[in-house]
Amino acid sequence: QVQFVESGGGLVQPGGSLRLSCAASGISFTEAIMTWHRQAPGQAREWVATMFPGGATFYDDSVKGRFTISRNDANGTLYLQMNSLKPEDTAMYYCQEAGSTTWGQGTQVTVSS
């Protein structure tokens, strides 16, 4: 059974940092193209970042230079280091294997003073 379990969200002030984690199971993680997405209230879910098995990474322009996607293939975990957070980063964050139809419960990130 494919499963993604996100954690690490919370309330942070503008300019602060958070590190999100995603535990993946039921997939061949070492071969998986992994992605982070987010959905703000009243808005469509949007792509944030992608990491390929070989290490290549890609980011949406809105987070480039502030967010870093990484992975630990030994334990099947995906990460998203978020620095210099802005109020517009407030959203529910989800991880997923590219092309999967399965979504986790997500982890809430709120950036507010």
In short:
Helices cover 0% and strands 49% of the residues. It contains no helices and 10 strands.
Question: What does this entry look like structurally?
Answer:
The protein is mainly beta and 113 residues long. 0% of the residues lie in helices and 49% in strands. It contains no helices and ten strands. The chain has strands spanning 3-7, 10-12, 18-25, 34-39, 46-51, 57-59, 67-72, 77-82, 91-97, 107-111. The strands form two sheets. Strands 2-10-9-4-5-6 form a six-stranded mixed beta sheet, with no helix packed on it. It has a four-stranded antiparallel beta sheet with strand order 1-3-8-7, with no helix packed on it. The protein is globular, with a radius of gyration of 13 Å. The mean pLDDT is 97.
Widest sheet: strand ordering? 2-10-9-4-5-6
Span between termini? 40 Å
Class from secondary-structure proportions: mainly beta
Strand content: over 45%
The best one-word shape is globular
Number of helices: 0
Main beta sheet, described? Answer: 6 strands, mixed
> How do the helices and strands follow one another from N- to C-terminus?
EEEEEEEEEE
What brief labels describe this structure?
single chain; 113 residues; mainly beta; six-stranded mixed β-sheet; four-stranded antiparallel β-sheet; 10 strands; 0% helix
Topology:
Elements: E1 3-7, E2 10-12, E3 18-25, E4 34-39, E5 46-51, E6 57-59, E7 67-72, E8 77-82, E9 91-97, E10 107-111
Parallel strand pairs: 2-10
Antiparallel strand pairs: 1-3, 3-8, 4-5, 4-9, 5-6, 7-8, 9-10
